[in-house]
Amino acid sequence: MAGVVGVVAEYNPFHNGHLYQLQQIKQAFPDDIIIVAMSGNFLQRGEPACLDKWTRTQEALQNDADLVVELPVLACVQPADRFAFGAVSLLSALGADKLVFGAEHSSYDFMSFARKVAGVHGEFHKYDESYARSFQTAIKKELGHAVDQPNDLLGLAYAKANYRLGEPLDLFPVQRVETSYHDQSLHKGAQIASASAIRKNFSLSKKTQKKLAPYLPQVSLNDLVEGPFVSWDDFWPLLRYKVVSSNLADLGQIYGMSEGIEYRIQEQTQRLPLDINFDMWVKKVKTKRFTYTHLARLAVAILLNISEQEVQAYNSEPYIRLLGFGGDGRKQLSRVKKNCPFPIYSRVSQDDRKEQLAVDYRAGKIYQLFNGVEQDAKRAPIVF
């Protein structure tokens, strides 16, 4: 009997590395259905997606994905372990029995690691370093070696989530090839570049488009060129306005605020010159306790006005938003719909946008300010 493979993705943008992963899945499990749980218009690493969720869904469906669902923004603003738990829970609810993910060390037995470190926590009260660094130190002590590469860390987070859920999924790491996650260079003769390198090197010039062609499927390159291409540069003035104009009590209610960081955020923002950009802002606000990614996620929460209560409400009552599917994806939905533990939304009604989908709808409207395309109202899943 055919199985179901789950993939957690951003596709920011969809490039040859993502294509390679999906091809590896098809080669290893030719009869299986592929479900992609994809971050929407704001991503877990704390940035707006360069192309909207509908464009990236279409790209995934054109490259072997059978069903694409949205990871709600309330999952994406959470730290890696909580984000991973939301993603793995969602995929398991949709019937996935396997999870495939990229890793810097595909030989790692991530489930074995997860069992060993299930009760391990960092020294959160050690104030001269971030919790992430403290946690990595604790993991190294328990396992005898570091697990500190970006995709390895996410792989461990997925494994820990799977362990908490009773191990409903078999894990299959795929070796990351040719480039590291943080590599921002385009290497001549290579066919794979990191998403960050592609974003950094993208512009509308013909020369740059030609330079990016080896690293992207043609449809992805076309979508980038046709745009609109969105980045923190677009949203930065809104974020700055929100920080400067808010009172400290309101800032303190934003999800992820802790240890009085709202005081530093507002003070530094008010003092900085007008010509700085988002990256400069993060570097000025940053302390030893808060990583760049933590602050970037916090910036998304500020921009979208996400409260602790809204995140906790989602964690208590998760849901699934359909973005697109092909024929096999439709069949899988029919199989699981009756017994799925989470509500499944295919459209956003007037009531939905005021209730369970309120934050996603708000996020879509803010993204639309610079994308120019309606993200939720009257949008139906893409049928491929």
UniProtKB/TrEMBL annotation:
Subcellular location: Cytoplasm
EC number: 6.3.4.-
Binding site for ATP: 8-21, 102, 151, 176
Keyword ATP-binding on entry: yes
Record key words, sorted: ATP-binding, Cytoplasm, Ligase, Nucleotide-binding, RNA-binding, tRNA processing, tRNA-binding
Family as reported in the entry's similarity comment: Belongs to the TmcAL family.
NCBIfam families, sorted: cyt_tran_rel (TIGR00125), PRK13670.1 (NF010191)
Protein name, per record: tRNA(Met) cytidine acetate ligase
Organism: Ligilactobacillus acidipiscis DSM 15836
Organism ancestry: Bacteria, Bacillati, Bacillota, Bacilli, Lactobacillales
Gene that encodes it: tmcAL
